[in-house]
Records
---
Amino acid sequence: MAAFSAVRKAVASPLRAVAKDEARPIRALAFDGFTIFDPRAVSAAVVSAVPDRGAALAGAWTNKLFALSWLETAAGRYSGFGRLADAALDFSAQAMGIALTPAIRRDLVAVFGQLPAWPDAAAALERWRSAGIRLAFLSNLEADVLIANTRRNGLGGLFETPLSTDRVRAFKPSPCAYAMGPAHFGLTMQEIGFVAFGGWDALGARWFGYRTAWINRLGVPEETLSPHPDSAGPDLAAVDRLLR
């Protein structure tokens, strides 16, 4: 609770300044990792490992991973993404009566560090960097996983130091996680655009005070709680609209 109190104090002044700052141009973008890297490779790996029930297992794993991350954050605990992903996969497989060895689980979790970039990512990132906009990941993934994915996709020179939730030991949508953006960039929240993959993340970022683009790659319904994203769409063109 002390950490949350500290965050509230740290962001109170910027929150009061939101209306005043809305006219300021966005000078930096903070990205969820999956807006740039395609996580469907993880599901494909599960289907390859468990051909008959892989799709169902992948869905159950994803749901359990979200549930555990939010449970830990609510309880003030933190295991890190990789450890939590393994625990969620182990639970999901056991619940479905699927035998997965530790080695298979390890290989499947490792796929998070072997993701392909979405087709529109490289050109968009280069365009924004050329325009002088600073770029960094703000992600639940570990820093080494983010760095591995940027390097394998030839994007390593475009991003600043990854802002992994390992730094604050609280997963998004904790305000402790979102607060890394202003602290790292030295900018107000309204000078930072947050680029979300999940609708829940877009909502959490808006609650925190970011101007937010939701990249709805998978075409899922929008969250029904308010406020809505400032910009939304199926690809990174939504970020261009946010920057206008």
---
Amino acid sequence: MKLLKIIYSEADLVTQTILENHFDMNNSEREFDVHDAAIVGLFEDMVGKTNSLLVLLNNQSFNGADSLTRMIMENFIFLKLIFQRDSNNRARSYFYSLKLRQIKFFNTMIEQSLVGSEIRKYLSLSIDNLYKKFPKFADNAYLEDIETGFIDSLNHKDKNQKWYNVTGKINNFRALCKYLGYEKEYILLYQTFSSEVHALEATNYFKFDHGIVEVYRKGGEINTHVMVISNFLIEIIREMYSYYELKNEVSKFNNKIAINYKLIRGT
């Protein structure tokens, strides 16, 4: 796990390095834009989840490791799609899809239904309170801008299309993985780790026998998690630096990883 910790430390520096060395507020071509927010946001979320995974593994707590690895794979695949080609528009599509989800959730909260009523009751907020708290969701111009931004990003047929449906045939995450050449990773990792996500492992933590209940904690074989996340992070860090035209940072990163890999193998 030493190498993953080193990779994480390097990943934690990527965004700051990019912000300091790529963007220029006096150059319109290098201003931080919507597509940058999507790319950096996906990457930072990936780094944050890696940190959470390291905390779990350091404390020999393996519950949640599968779920985190699965979510990190999602970030990895999304970024791979964005970096493949037409990066600006694909990143914009992702960004606006998140905004559409926020709007959809807001509409659920204010709807005159049992579900809407229960949500408002749980939050201790009235419909008027929600409109005051989130005024932009009552602004038709804002809502239209978001929907138009999403549809225009990749010429989507409507706002309900998957943001990553770049061919017209990618309707789910497995199809996306297949399109990018990661279907075997989807089957071996994503599907395997889905048991924890969907609570299918719950019965593995208990044993019932003659009126006695034994409770188990999840034990752990962590090599798969460590190897997978290490490879994902290394690849995306290189992609991040390359996309933002920081070739020297790619070289420096590759050298650090190579040196540390040799040192770790020698210990």
---
Amino acid sequence: MSKLGEPLNIGGVAVKNNVWMAPLAGYTDFAFRKQCYKFGAGLCFTEMVSAKGLHFRSEATAALLHTGEGEKQTAAQLFGSDPAILREACESEYLKDFPVVDLNMGCPMPKVVKNGEGSALLEDFPKAAAVVSACKRSGKAVTVKFRIGVKRGEPLAAEFAKLCEDAGADALTVHGRPREAIYAGEPDFEQIAAAKRAVSIPVIANGGIFSRQDAEAMLDKTGADGVMIARAAMTSPHIFAEILGGEEEWDRRAVIEEQIADMLPFYGERFTVVQMRKMTAFYLHGMRGAAKHKARLFTCNSIAALREALCDIFPA
């Protein structure tokens, strides 16, 4: 059985450990990923990026692929359904700094599904296979993130995992809930285990991991090769240190200030303020007076006001 902290090889790319940060739209930008890496994450992923957006040279889409100084090994997550456009994205200048491409076949959001993208590909095996094969021909290491099925009681994790492997995928991340559950309920360990048994490539288990105990249980119950953390990192990027047995405490204010300093030159003041109000609100989870502090945060309309609030929330 795999143990937390073990290195992995993904299509020839050496990854330092098997505790990964999930791609989260609206959150996993370069400044947040820096914090996850600092606390020990083995691999982080960009926010999900539209292959069509890159095809049409959207500046907003391209901005999602911005990397920070020293960020040498991050995976770019793409979504789409056209094999040719996805391969074009993989081969484009936009992805030159990304050794790993992750294909989103699990997003449950209706606006994505209705376009035949994300978890819609769970209902179109031939197209899913064509997408994986096309991206693999780009020469990148290719991973696929998907859910155990569409509806409760109708699992297809093992079958879909095998399809992806046969199409050329180098690793898989399996979210242990069906699409219709979104994020509700416990992950289905047996379906993740079935996917793991069906393939010979690494399988990363995702869903419901909020502590080291959760991560150990996930590996024990599924036989997976690693774990992927999602919502738990939004309230504490320090969770990677907790899971890997690192430092016990973290300085919330220092993390927030560093994110602000990293974001400001790239995004400008307005976006940085809006984003860091949101991120700071998450980081206050579990703190005494969090509701009052959050109310104040969302009145901040400048970096100066945000930093003044931080001084009051986290007095020296």
---
Amino acid sequence: MSVDAELSDTGTQAQSWPRAMDLARLVRLDRPVGIWLGLGPALWAVWVATRGRPHPILLGIVVLGVIVSRSALCALNDFADRDFDRHVPRTRDRPVASGRVSPQASLATFLGLCALGSPLLLFANHLTVAVLFAGATIAIAYPFAKRVTHWPQLFLGATNGWSTLLVYASATNYLPVQAWIQAAAIATWTMAYDCTYALADREDDVRIGVKSMAVRLGRHAPAAIAALQGLTLLALVLLGRVAGLGWWHVTAVVLVVGLFVDQHRLIVHATPQAYLRAFERSHWFGWILLVAAALDLGKTV
């Protein structure tokens, strides 16, 4: 091999490495908080739906499904928000907004990840497939909702709540009352944390015309977050009764109350940094409830 060829190969490798890093950032592999936000509630739903006896294949499907779907939606979100992100200091360095990844590449990444996850359908029953495609419609609409409504958090809440229904459909092939109650708890909790996240960018969003609950509600947004968290707690109490969960679930609800109070202690500071810190603590919610369900139902995680 000639020296020129060796240098060419080295240059190609050097160029491909930054591109791989940019694609990793596109799907937020450098910020796994989104995975923890999705994985904890999903596994909690598995444990409650199966009464603490999840099949290993179901666990694998749920874990892979959360990671792949979350990564795909991050790529779609950056595609949808590319014209907004470049005007916001916190997001202007995202791969698409900064020009390091083209819009076409981000869309191709989204489609590629959807294709990557499609073999999981081989393990799905008919109800699961129907629930999946209905939920996917809502999930795909979410990144674009902020252009037309001040309530995009409703779309994300519905998406994550629908994921709970998807777990029940996969685990039991039907949707009992407790599935809808658990989905409601996830939906209202999601709306609360996404509104908290939106508060961090509220001033920039007002300036560039992005719609959100935080923009629409203004100074009343913290009260709305508290109300949503109150509805979440109500759903958790009801779930405990309907699903026959025990004192570990009660203990978890008390811990969740403490988590919500701690988040509001940050929110009252009314700074972008405080809002983001409050948001980042949200992932504890699902894991607290998962551990409690595992203990109540006689299994360990």
